[in-house]
Amino acid sequence: MIEIKNIYKSYKMGNSSLQVLKGINIEIAEGELVAIMGSSGSGKSTLLNILGMLDVADEGVYKLDDVLIENLDETLAAKYRNKFLGFVFQSFNLINYKSALENVALPLYYQGLNRKLRQKTALDYLEKVGLGNWSSHLPSELSGGQKQRVAIARALASQPKVLLADEPTGALDSVTSNEVMGLIQQINNEGKTILVVTHEIDIANMCKRIVTLKDGVILEDKKVKQVLIS
Amino acid sequence: MNSLKIIFDWDTWQEIFGSIAKNKTRTIITVIGVLWGIFIYISLSGSAKGLDNGFERQFENIAMNSMFIWAARTSIPYSGFKVGRSPQLKIQNATTLKQQIPEIQFIAPRNAKGVFGSIPAQVVRKNKSKPYNIYGDFPVYTKIATKKIYDNGRFINDEDIKYERKVCVIGERTQLELFEPDEDPVGQYVRIDDVYFKVIGVHKFIQGGGFETDGDIFIPFETYRKLYNTGDDVDWFTIAAYDYADAVAVEKKVKQTLKRIHRVSPEDERAFGAFNIGEVFTKIMGFAKGMTFLSLVVGLATIFAGVIGIGNILMISVNERTKELGVRRALGATPGEVRMQIVLESVFLTTIAGIFGIILGSFMLAAINLFTIDKTDFPYTNPTVPIPLVLGALLIMVTLGTLIGLIPAQRAVSIKPIDALREE
Question: Is B8 on the interface with A (CB under 8 A)?
Fold first, then answer.
């Protein structure tokens, strides 16, 4: 599903440049649930941004679902993101003046679906994350766990090939963290490829494979025994 | 998605309504800026138009391109004559002037008693008696200055001149003062300076320039001549030039010709006096045009200021919404779609504000009109703004709204989604 070879990325900081990724190679098959581990500054977020086409690598090859991702301009990147990827952020990033349902329907709007279909699909996904009754609520009326579930529903609504979750439990307590991870596991079990960036080993252990980054290189890449949530 | 589809897509508008409704105070304050601009624009240009109409009404009963010419005193000795001679205009001069100056459309020699210091005539009817001004006129006079005659009456005609008939056209006030309220003066007789005249009409008095009043009595020129023994003398000429002619130039030519006839020095500026309505009218209309132009400039400048306000507010709102816009782009909004949304927000706000401004401005004009509608001496009539000007203003606003909206829109897309998302 995902194939990256020799990814390099550096950021210019004044006169010097900071090498963040120093040759990353990963292959991720369809249906995997991969945790990308590492302390802050290890390059895990940069890697996720490159995978999410929010950022472009200096060097290297990136293939997504056998499509070579190159020469991205913003418009093309936006189309690929919409078609291939679903994002879940640490801070949820729901649009605060839109109801849960409208938030979930937003990527479908950018796909050009008609209104009825959008509403129906969005409601299906809200029900899938257990928030069917909360569809008309604004994000401010939802708890942290609920917000993240809405965000997951939104990420899934466009039926992406890959779900990218950047510290999805970073802003949640352990109970709701488990709820959210349970939901991620459930979605993975239905066949979706998911990448989770985290610095918590507990969360990483709930995935099927852990890639550990340190100082811009892969330190370890191993399959683990998945800790299942109930 | 192509741009036309975006504009006519209900969802686009829902997105825009959503983000506009999100911050009501901001929206209202923004809208007031432009609303005020278009309100000022409509009120000002409507008032300017009202002034314009008002001035035109003041002149509606006299030909725009007309003038009065009279003889005064010479100021330069010439051809053996001393200074201070008073040339006497003659009825024959009218023919000469008409022949020699092709720009003259109509020329009406006039005599009058009661104006320019002469004594008015005593007019008697039954036991009532009053002094009134008497004018000796040709029918052609009505071609220059309209005389509205009440029903079943008429003005002096060529037959009256030819047969030197003793007929007269009296004024509204004359009728009021000499006749009973239920009496029809037409066909009755009045005595003017001891001669009986048959009343053939009552003229309606129209305010506007000149020295005529609502009590004036008009009699045929030839009858006047007999009555007062004026011979070929004429007090003054009323002249109307063709529309294409320049009134000032015609006045100059008329004076030149008269100077030649009456052997006055060509350099003598004082021998003949003139009052040039064409010149005055041109000046006043020039003033009105200036007002219209000024109101246009002020109005447009105010609109411009309002639109800049919208741009400013949108700029701030884009900064506030950096994160939201980042999320939208992560979810698949292309830069074009984001740009389009911001621009449409700007255009939408401008247009709504504009429409409300036009409505308020119209109410304002209607109110002013209501207060000035019976004030006939105040030069202000029917204040309107031509539809093309209104539509033009709307078009300008939409264009400016688009252009101004492009600035925050460009800023919105210039932030990379990754930076936008990182912002806390």
Answer: no
Q: What is the CATH number of the domain that holds A205?
A: 3.40.50.300
Please indicate if any CB of chain B lies within 8 Å of the CB of A171: no
Residues B9 and B33 in one domain: yes
Confidence at B377, pLDDT banded by 50, 70, 90: low
- The one-letter code for the residue type at B61 is N
Mean pLDDT of B402-418: 85
pLDDT at B147 exceeding the cut of 90: no
- Closest partner residue to B332 among A49, A89, A107, by Cβ? A107
Q: Which of residues 312-351 of B touch A (CB under 8 A)?
A: 323-324, 326-337
Contact B234, B89 (CB under 8 A): yes
* pLDDT of B1 strictly over 50: no
Domain around B303: 3-59+283-422
Percent of chain B with pLDDT over 70: 95
> Which run of H or E residues covers position B148?
strand B148-149
Q: Is A91 on the interface with B (CB under 8 A)?
A: yes
* pLDDT tens-digit map of A173-200: 989 999 899 999 999 999 999 999 998 8
* Burial of residue B176, with CB atoms counted within 10 A of its CB: 0-12 exposed, 13-18 middle, 19 or more buried: middle
* Count: domains in chain A: 1
pLDDT range class, residue B402, cuts 50, 70, 90: confident
Are B266 and B327 part of one and the same domain?
Answer: no
A71 Ramachandran zone, left/alpha/beta (phi>0; psi -120 to 50): left
The distance of Cα A69 from the centroid of its chain, to the nearest Å, equals 17
Report the gap between the CA of B421 and the closest CA in chain A (Å): 8
Give A14 or A198, the one with higher predicted confidence. Answer: A198
Instruction: Give φ, ψ of A196 to 5 degrees.
Output: -120, 120
CA distance B158 to B147: 16
- Between strands B236-241 and A209-214, the pairing is unpaired
**Interface contact flag, B332 A97, Cβ < 8 Å:** no
Q: What is the ipTM score, two decimals?
A: 0.88
Residue B414 half-sphere exposure, CB side, CA atoms within 13 Å? 9
In B321-416, alpha helices (H) = 322-330, 335-372, 387-414
**CA dist B161 to A47, A158, B167, B221, B351, Å?**
109, 98, 10, 7, 66
Q: What is the pLDDT of residue B334?
A: 87
Contact B337, A111 (CB under 8 A): no
Segments in B193-276 forming alpha helices (H):
221-228, 247-261
* A16 phi, psi to nearest 5 deg: -90, 160
The torsion angles phi and psi of A20, rounded to 5 degrees, stand at -95, -45
pLDDT tens digits, residue range A122-154?
999 999 999 999 999 999 999 999 999 999 999
> CB A112 to CB B1 under 8 A?
yes
Q: Which domain holds residue A100?
A: 31-42+76-223
Rounded Cα gap, residues B193 and B345, in angstroms: 81
- Percent of chain B past pLDDT 90, that is, above it, reads 35
> Is there a domain that residue A113 lies in?
yes
**A109 at interface of B, judged by CB pairs closer than 8 A:** yes
Number of domains in chain B: 3
